[in-house]
Specification:
By secondary structure, this protein is of the alpha+beta class. The chain is built from 4 helices and 4 strands; from the N terminus they run βααββαβα.
Length: 109
């Protein structure tokens, strides 16, 4: 399963990078691989988030747990992790939705 994580550095995270500039790939890769995952891409971004991390894990729980570890460190904030599907995978999601469409009753109906 693919996951996309966005995060912003907190004040302490920025202070750490300014005091000791470093490429964070090795540190993040070690954590991801220890959890049994793989980094597909890691990017520094501008705008709403500072970091964009794309990972692959066997399950949702591991991806979310790693986000919790990073957030607990205090170095990142506004951390969001979402599942990403390929277009082929999402077709099966849409097919499932199509089969369930008649089972939902909107409020007030």
């Amino acid at each position: 399963m693919l996951f996309v994580t966005q995060a912003s550095y907190s004040q302490s995270g920025v202070k750490g990078l300014v005091n000791k500039p470093e490429d964070r790939l090795a540190a993040i890769q070690q954590m991801v691989e220890t959890a049994g995952g793989k980094i597909v891409g890691l990017y520094m971004t501008t705008g709403e988030a500072d970091v964009l991390l794309i990972t692959e894990f066997e399950d949702d729980e591991t991806a979310v747990a790693l986000g919790m570890v990073a957030a607990a460190s205090g170095s990142v904030s506004d951390l969001k992790t979402v599942r990403a599907w390929t277009t082929a995978e999402f077709k099966s999601v849409a097919e499932k939705a199509s089969g369930l469409a008649g089972s939902y009753r909107p409020p007030g109906s």
